[in-house]
Each structure stands twice: as C-alpha cells, then as structure tokens.
C-alpha cells in the first residue's frame, strides 16, 4: 500500500543557512535528503509552508503523516541509517514545468525594467 506524502510532486527542504531546495515527495528522496544533511537540523514543509518533517542529526523529530512514516519512510531510511544499504544520492527536484515558469516570471520582471 502506497501512502502519499505532502501535496503534489515536491516539498521544500530548508537547510540551517536558510537555503531552500525542492525535495521529491518519494520516500527514497526524502530519506536521501535526511541522510545528506544528517549532521544538521533540517525541515521539510509542503507547498503551503506547513511542517511535514523535522530532523536533527539524522533523527526524525517530527513527522506529520504517521502512515507515510510507518509504511514508506522508515523501511527506506532505517537501513540507510544503520549502514545496511548505501544511502541514495539526494537529487533536488527540478521539474521542467517549474523551471520554465520561474524563468518566464524572471524574464518578465527584467524585461519590464528596460
């Protein structure tokens, strides 16, 4: 049984320095994000900026969707944390649609300044 996470295809991952990255709403990429930043305190929020996951030192402090946690995330994350499997590489979510929309908006702002 697949449990959905967040809203849509991606969520926002916030790093301690304030940087925001897009995180795919899959258990594998969420686990990869947690493992890639296991020495830091990070948060994952949905597109409405509502907290979904908070971690510190690679440990889950808060997970809003408990079904996703039990059925999807823990079976992927725990073996990574215990060194039973190699951590998946975190790849920021970069959908073509998102990139085109952002570029068009940015171009409009710059072209209107001319």
Poorly predicted ranges: 109-114
Q: Helices and strands, in N-to-C order?
A: EEHEEEHH
Global morphology? globular
Termini Cα gap = 54 Å
Oligomer designation: single chain
Could you describe the largest sheet, including whether it forms a barrel? 5 strands, antiparallel
Describe the structure.
The protein has 114 residues and is of the alpha+beta class. The protein is 38% helix and 23% strand. It has one domain. It has helices at 27-36, 66-81, 96-112; strands at residues 10-14, 20-24, 41-45, 51-56, 59-63. A 5-stranded antiparallel beta sheet has the order 2-1-3-4-5, covered by helices on one side. Helix 1 packs across helix 2. The radius of gyration is 16 Å and the shape is globular. The termini are far apart.
What is this structure, in a nutshell?
The chain is built from 3 helices and 5 strands. With 114 residues, the chain is an alpha+beta fold.
List the SSEs and their pairings.
Elements: E1 10-14, E2 20-24, H1 27-36, E3 41-45, E4 51-56, E5 59-63, H2 66-81, H3 96-112
Antiparallel strand pairs: 1-2, 1-3, 3-4, 4-5
Helix pairs in contact: 1-2
Which labels suit this protein?
114 residues, five-stranded antiparallel beta sheet, alpha+beta, globular
């Amino acid at each position: 049984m697949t449990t959905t996470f967040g809203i849509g295809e991606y969520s926002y991952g916030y790093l301690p320095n304030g940087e925001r990255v897009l995180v795919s709403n899959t258990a594998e990429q969420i686990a990869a994000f947690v493992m890639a930043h296991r020495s830091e305190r990070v948060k994952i929020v949905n597109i409405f900026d509502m907290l979904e996951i908070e971690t510190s030192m690679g440990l889950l402090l808060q997970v809003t969707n408990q079904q996703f946690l039990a059925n999807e995330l823990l079976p992927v994350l725990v073996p990574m944390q215990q060194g039973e499997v190699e951590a998946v590489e975190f790849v920021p979510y970069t959908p073509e649609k998102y990139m085109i929309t952002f570029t068009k908006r940015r171009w409009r702002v710059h072209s209107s300044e001319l």
